[in-house]
Amino acid sequence: MKDSSRVLGGAILALGLVLGCVSLGLADIQVGAMHSLTTGLAPLGQRQINSAILASEEWNAKGGINGKKIDLIVEDTADSTTMAMTALDRVLGKDVCAILGPIWSFQLFALFPEVKKEGVPLLSTSGTRALTQKNNPWYFRLYPHDGITKRAYTIFAVQELKARRVAVMCVTTEYGKSGHELILETLKELGLEPVIVTWHNKDDKDMTGQLMSIKRANPDVIISQAHPADTAIILKQQRDLGIKVPHVASSAATMPYIHKLVGPAMDGVYVEAAALPNYDPDPKIQAWTKKYVRRFKTKPDSFALLYYDAANFLFSAIKAAGSNRAKIAKWLRGNRFQGLADQYVFDREQNGAHFAIIVQYRWKDGRVVPQLVKKYDLSPK
Amino acid sequence: MIIQEITSGVAIGCIYALVSFGFVLIYNGVGAVNFAYGELVMFGGYLGYAASVWLGFPLWVAMIFSLVAMTLLGIFYNEFAYYPMRHQPVVVVIIASIGMSVLLRNGALAIWGPDALKVNSFVGDGILNFGGVVLPQHNVLIVLVTAFVFIGQYLFFARTSIGRKLKATAQDQEMARLMGIKVRWMIVLTFVLAAWLASIAGFLLAPIWFLEPDIGLYIILKAFIVIVIGGFGSIPGLVVAGLFLGVTEVLVASHLTSEYKDVISFLILITVLMVLPQGFFGEKIAERL
Q: How many CA atoms are closer than 13 Å to the CA of A56, on its beta-carbon side?
C-alpha cells in the first residue's frame, strides 16, 4: 500500500512537473499585428495583415519558433490616430514581444511616444521619410523610404524620359508633403524647378482644376505622389481631359485593384515600386503570390510582399534572440536578412530597404501589363 | 480652356444637385435630417455593381435591380430609423440616421470589401471633342439625367395626384389625414423616392468617383454645402447651388489654389450663411409668437 502510494505520489509530481514545463516553456509567442482593417485605408492594411498571417502560419506549420507557436494579435487601426492608439494599448495588454505596425505615418507618429516608453520593436512598411529621422530606436522600416523611391522616380523622369518641364501633383497628407519635399530637392540637384505644383486632398473625387492648371503650364512630364483612390482618379481624369504627357506615379499605382478602376488610362504610366509580386518572373515570388491568392482570394501588392518579408525578418530575430524586446531590436540592427523581394539591412536610421524599381504599364488585350524598365540600388555608401 | 473647366464643373455640380435633392426630399417630406443619405447613394452604386459584375446582368437590368433593392432599403430605413422615432425630439431622429449611416458603411465594407470598385457607364468611357473642349460621354449623361430628374420631379409634384398628396403631407400631416390621404403610405413613398434618387446618383458617380465604403461621408458633406447655399428645402436652389459649387471648385483649383480648394468651399458656405442666412432661394420664415 505504501509502495503504491509512493508510486502514485511520484506520478502526480512528475505530471505536475511536465505540465509546469509545458506551461512555462511552450507558451505561445505573442506578436502584435496592427493595421487598417476597416475604412477606406483597409485595401492596403488588409493585404499586409494577410501577409503577416501567412508568415505566422508557415512558421507554425514548421513547429513555430523554437517549439513555441506564434500567436499573432491582430488589431484594427482604422483611419485615425485614436484607433491606432487603442490598437496599441490592446496589443501591449497581451504582452507582445514586437509589433508589425501600420503603414500610415500619421498613425506611426502618434504611436511613437508609447512605443518608446514601452520599449517594443515596431516594424512597418511606411515610405514617409521623416519617420526614421525622429530618433526612435524601436522603429524599424522595411520598405524603401521616400528618400529612395521619390529620388529614383524623379531621376528617372529627368534622366531617362529627358524631362525638363516637370509638373508635380501631391496629396496634402504627411506622405504627400514628405514626397513633395524630396521631389523638389532631387529636381534641384538636377538643376531643375517644377513648372507647377498642385495639391489635392486624399478624398477628393475631382482633379479637373489641378489637371487643367497643369495643362496650362505645358509640362513634359507629370510626377505624382498620392494614395490609391486619388491616384486612380488622377490617372483616369488625365486621360479624360486629353493630357498626353508621360505620368510617373507613386507606388499606389502598382496595386492590382487600381488597374481595374483605371483600365486603358494605365497605358504608358510609369510607377515607382519596391517589388512586383504579381508579375515578377522569380519562381519563389510566383509561388508565394499563388499561395497568397489561394489563401486570401485577393492579389497581393508590393507592400504586402515586403510586409511578409518584415514578418519573416522579425520571426527570425525572435528565433535568434528570444522574446526579450531589447534583444530582438539589437538582433535586427546587427543582421542582414534575405527576403523574397530583396536583401534587407538596417542603416543608422533603421531603414532596412534601399532599392527601388520603375515599371511601365501597358494596356494589352483588355489587361494592364507591367514591364520593368529600371532598377535603382541606393544603398548607403 | 475656361470653357473646359466650366463644362467639367457643370457635370460635378449636377451630381452635387442630384444627391442634395434626395436629402431635401426627405427633409421637405417628413422634416427629418438624414445624415445617412450619402450611404444610401453609396449603396445604390454598390447594388448596381453586385448586379452587373457579380450577377453578370446588363447595365439596364442592374439599374432595375438597384432600384428594386433600394425600394426595400428605403422602406427598411423608414420602418426602423424614422417612423418609430418621428414623434421624438429632432436629435433622436438625427442620431438614428447617424446610426444607420454607420450600419450601411460597415455593411458595405463587409459585403464588398475595402477595395474601390467601379460600375461601367451606360455610355462607355468615350470622349467627345468639341473644338478642343473634351467632354467624357459619361459627363453628358450626368447632365441629361439630372435635367430629366429635375423636370420630372416638377411635373410629378405639380401635375399628378400622388405628387400633390405628397406635397400636402409634407405641408401638414394632420390636415392631409383629414383630407383622406393615407399619410403613412405617403411617408413610405417619400423614403422610396429618395432611395430611387440615391440609386440613380450612385449609378452616375460610380464610373467616375468609384465606390468605397467611405464615399458617403464625402457625398453628404458636399450635399450639405449645396443645400445650405441653395436655401434649405429649395429645389431650384439645389440646382443653382450645385452648379455654382461644382464650377467654383474647378475654377478655384485651377486658377487660385488647389491646396485650399475645400477651404474656399467652406468660406463660401460661411459667407452665404452670414450674408444670406436663408440661402440663394430660401424663404424668410417668421416665427409665430
A: 20
Rounded to the nearest 10°, the torsion over CA A171, A172, A176, A178 is: 160
* Interchain CB distance below 8 Å, A232 and B210: yes
> What one-character DSSP code corresponds to residue A134?
S
Query: What global pTM score does this model have?
Result: 0.83
Tens digits of per-residue pLDDT, B178-230?
999 999 999 999 999 999 999 999 999 999 999 999 999 999 999 999 999 99
Q: What is the rounded distance in angstroms from the CA atom of residue A208 to the CA atom of residue B230?
A: 24
* Angle at A110 (CA atoms; ends A107, A115), nearest 5 degrees: 105
A365 in the Ramachandran plot: left (φ > 0), alpha (ψ -120 to 50) or beta?
left
pLDDT interval class at A20 (50, 70, 90): very low
| Secondary structure (3-state) at A224 | strand
ipTM: 0.88
Contact (CB, 8 A) for A156 and A223:
no
Q: Name the residue in chain B with its Cα closest to that of A170.
A: B259
Q: Which of B127, B205, B210 sits opposite A240 (nearest CB)?
A: B127
> Which of B136, B218, B254 is facing A213, going by the closest CB pair?
B254
Closest among B195, B57, B68, B40 to B119, alpha carbons compared: B57
The answer to whether residues A125 and A310 touch, using CB atoms and an 8 Å cutoff, is yes
Sign for the CA dihedral angle at A125, A129, A131, A133 comes to positive
Q: What is the chain A residue with the closest CA to B127?
A: A240
How far from chain centre, in Å, is Cα A272?
14
B243, containing H or E segment: helix B235-251
Q: Is B45 on the interface with A (CB under 8 A)?
A: no
Lookup: cell for B237:
436652389
Closest CA to A265 of B126, B52, B23: B126
The distance from CA B37 to its chain's CA centroid, rounded to whole angstroms, is 7
Q: Torsion-angle region of residue A190: left (phi > 0), alpha (psi -120 to 50) or beta?
A: alpha
Cell of A79: 483611419
pLDDT at A119: 97
What are the beta bridge partners of residue A362? A369
Nearest one of B118, B176, B235, B219 to A203, comparing CA atoms? B219
Whether B120 has its CB under 8 Å from any CB of chain A: the answer is no
Are the beta carbons of B45 and B121 closer than 8 angstroms? no
- Do A101 and A121 form a contact (C-beta atoms < 8 A)? no
pLDDT of the residue at A25 = 45
The proportion of chain A whose per-residue pLDDT surpasses 70, expressed as a percent, equals 92
**Cβ–Cβ below 8 Å for A209 and B5:** yes
A188 and A215 in contact (C-beta within 8 Å)? no
Residue recorded with cell 507647377: A196
Select the residue of B109, B116, B261 nearest A257 (Cβ to Cβ): B116
The end-to-end CA distance of chain B, in Å, is: 54
